[in-house]
Amino acid sequence: MLTLYHCHNARSFRPLWTLEEMGLPYELKMLPFPPRDRAPDYLAVNPLGTIPTLLDGPTRMTESAAICQYLVSRYGPSPLGVEPAEPDYGPYLNWLHFGEATLTFPQTVVLRYSFFAPPEQRSEQVAADYKQWFLSRLRGIDAVVAKQPTLCAGRFTVADISVGFALMLARFIGLDAKFTPAVADYWASLKAREGFKKAMAKQDTAGRVQGVENRLGRAL
Ligand SMILES: N[C@@H](CCC(=O)N[C@@H](CS)C(=O)NCC(=O)O)C(=O)O
To answer: Of 10, 114, 158, 182, which residue is the least packed, with the fewest Cβ within 10 Å?
Structure first.
């Protein structure tokens, strides 16, 4: 049985969304954010204290984009993955990792310096700089989705999940209002997917049942 450790609306939403799109059975373990401080037992599962963690028998993974890649490769074939022989294999890997390495990194700096840090450590200047950084990197997405409905391979893949999560996170830092029309339409199409809605419902139900509060609020 696959086990996913998750906090509401955090990066672990990428593998959660992938699991729901694929219809795989799994156990969802909800944690309060940040688990490092609020769920110290979790350090035995992941010494970094970060989420996600995916357990699959002896396999333990802690990188959200890599977990999505693992799920479609290990439990595919799935249209959510792109095979090495397909022409868009390179763009697929590029967008899959762009979502985390290039888009989510500046967002987490904004979150830290405007929301999660103790008040005396917050900085409007740092937050403003990294908001701008995120918006300028988003131009790469705009250039593609202005011409086609998904990022690559002519279909929805985990690359869209990876980038889609960064668009979801943008709402929490007030940046969704700055999306270009093409990026706004793309995001609207992603969150209209059944798999996305099921993942949202799953974290709400699991959070309630397991008594874990949602600190980030609604993504929609
Ligand atoms: N590159 C990792 C980053 C994991 C990560 O930093 N997760 C954040 C949540 S979105 C976290 O656990 N933060 C709490 C902390 O740093 O203590 C990934 O893509 O999964």
So the answer is: 182
3, pLDDT greater than 80: yes
pTM value surpassing 0.90: yes
List C-alpha distances in Å: 17 to 31, 67, 98, 177: 17, 11, 18, 24
The residue contributing the CA closest to ligand 1 atom 15 is: 50
Nearest-atom index, ligand 1, CA of 63: 20
For residue 220, pLDDT over 50 is answered with no
22/34 Cα distance (integer angstroms): 28
- Which pLDDT score is estimated for 218? 55
Cβ(10) – ligand 1 distance below 6 Å: yes
List the beta bridge partners of residue 61: 54
pLDDT level of residue 31 (50, 70, 90 thresholds)? very high
Q: What angle do CA 46, 48, 49 make, to 5 degrees?
A: 70
The 10s digit of each residue's pLDDT in 110-142 is 999 998 889 999 999 999 999 999 999 999 999
Which residues make Cβ contacts (< 8 Å) with residue 131, sequence separation at least 6? 106, 110, 173, 175
